[in-house]
Amino acid sequence: MAGDRLLIGAAVSSQEFDQPKFASLVADQFGCLTPCNEMKPDFVQRVKGKFTFDRADRIVQFAASHHLQVIGHTLCWHSQTPKWMYEDEGGKPLTREAALANLKTHIYAVMHHFKGKVKGWDVVNEAVNDGPEQILRDTPARRAIGDDFVLKAFQFAHEADPTAELYYNDYNIDLDYKRDRALKLIQQIRDAGLRIDGVGIQGHYMLEKPSLDEIERGLKAFSALGLQVMITELDVDPLPRGKSMIADINATEGAGLNPYKEGLPEEVQTQLADRYGSLFRLFLRYPKISRVTMWGVHDGDSWLNDFPVRGRTNYPMLFDRGLKAKPAFNAVINALAQAKP
Ligand code: G3I
After folding, report:
1. pTM score > 0.90 for this model?
2. What would the pLDDT profile of 17-73 be if each residue is shown by its tens digit?
3. Which of 17, 45, 223, 275 has the largest count of CB atoms under 10 Å?
4. CA 280 to centroid of ligand 1, rounded, Å
5. Is 93 part of any domain?
6. Is residue 305 part of a domain?
7. Gyration radius of the chain's alpha carbons
8. CB-based contacts of 332: which residues, under 8 Å, 6+ apart?
9. In angstroms, what CA-CA distances link 301 with 231, 233, 296?
10. Active site residue 233
11. Is residue 1 part of a domain?
12. Would you say residue 255 has pLDDT above 60?
């Protein structure tokens, strides 16, 4: 599937490579891999000082042997991070010095381990606040270190591996309600003289929302920064949603519908394909977009089977549960084929 113009990636988990059919599909269709969970802080350093890289290594080795690139996800995030990193046993913030030391040790160890094997890192993930009151979300890292925790993470990351690309990654930052705060944060990183190579727009979309116009306003604004723009976690959720549009798994809704347990109706399948086609045609009009990564490979391995309602049967990806290409896959191929070089 990999186009000449775009690097096309997928998020994967190491155990999925137990299935030879999955492994050959990934090797054939994608140009880069992002470990979906296995480079996150609670996977690589759940216990302070005890690093476990075996599962992430398996993905990196697979990528190397099939000439695929690897994107590291993620070094600093409020979720899937062990409490000890920023809080004491009573849940109080650590001192700034102690939290900074933990952040630095973590970033140095992880980036040294993967040096030369990872093209770029989501250094900080989802730090921008959803509400308008402040730029940064209230998180354990921010409470312990202060507002410059983002800058410090970028500083440590560049010190740890000056050859790696460094990205800021977040959800909904292309959208009107959140975009300006993300732009301000990126400006702060640049004003501090720190390296940042790109911004990752996650791209967790639904069939009709957000509108292409709104997404395009985001692509324009981030392209104007002159950095790489990447769509880092693309999926399109065809199931009905309640109030929640945010990609925060903690915001799981209590009840909801599971209308397509027996299969996706053909008209919805077509809508999904049309939506993917339009999204890729839009992305391809923006030369600053260097990569599009799908957040999963097939319908069965998507996080959207458990969000915003646990245990639904969802259909957000380009391949079905039997790893067969869906109409959405063909729509993407057509969009890539029609793109100007
Ligand atoms: O590791 C435990 C395992 O020990 C336990 O037995 C099992 C039982 O449920 O849970 C395992 O943890 C799960 C973890 O994935 C690893 O598989 C969590 O329950 C589950 O909630 C977690 O979900 C991940 C989610 O991030 C957490 O926020 C998804 O797989 C992953 O796709 C998702 O990815 C995030 C991006 O990193 C950032 N942007 C949003 C995106 C979607 O939420």
Report:
1. yes
2. 999 999 999 999 999 999 999 999 999 999 999 999 999 999 999 999 999 999 999
3. 45
4. 27
5. yes
6. yes
7. 19
8. 1, 276, 277, 280, 318
9. 19, 13, 6
10. yes
11. no
12. no
